[in-house]
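To: structure desk
From: M.T.
Subject: fold request, one chain
Message: Could you run this one when you get a chance? Sequence is below, nothing fancy, just the single chain.
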Amino acid sequence: MNYHFGRRLAVLLVFAGILLSLDAAYAQQKPSFKVIAFFTGKNDQAHISFVHEANKRLPELGKKNGFSYDSTTNWDNLNAEFLSKYQVVLFLDTRPEKPEQRAAFQKYMENGGGWIGFHFAAFALTPSAFPQNWDWYHDQFLGSGQYKSNTWRPTSAVLKIEAPQSPVFKGLKNTFKASPNEWYRWEKDLKQNPDIQILLSIDPSSFPLGTGPKQHEIWHSGYYPVAWTNKKYKMLYMNMGHNDIDYENKTNKELSFTFDNDAQNQFLVNSILWLANRKK
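Reply: Done. Structure tokens follow.
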């Protein structure tokens, strides 16, 4: 073989190898499924801060973990045609209000769609104070009923893993410390619901939880689920989603960020991957 020809052939083979490596890397990074987040972004500065943070950080997490991320404030996109493009739906702060939006979401979930709701997405009060209640969503789907109380001010908590064999806890220890958050208590006892699997609860080492100034805003004992799934659906609710804000000095300065927490982010990413890939 001619020396120069052999050298050119070697260079071409090296170049071809580089191209194949790049193609393989691209294939690994190409999104395997799509996530869509719905939000309102108008209810409380702490929730707005979380929404802005989520819309910045979730695309980054998606690129690293094989999913694409879109977001919208148009709740009319809760329709069969639009939702058919996505494998996982997120409610970042609120929930749909129109009957046709609610019906489309319920059908999406009953047909095997995936969903994660954060913090305020589960909020509901009694019908007299909150006349647009959604019984299927709060009582059957979430299983929590209405909101009863919360801690204040937003503080970190140690969270206990209640279902260590679940894939949502891959790479995590039995407990981890959450970002500062306003923690909710619910009307219904989720432990008594056979359809509900509690995933995370407040670890007793967190007590007292909250700083007040009102005494009922400080929890000293008790059992408080903060993340769970309804086994009839591909869904997961997590209480996180309320950043700490400087309300006292009226600066509205952000004092904490939900996504500044590697363990909590791992739980979220694991949850998205689990919902996108598991069967109904």
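Reply (cont.): Residues 9 and 15 are 10 Å apart (CA to CA). Let me know if you need anything else for the meeting.
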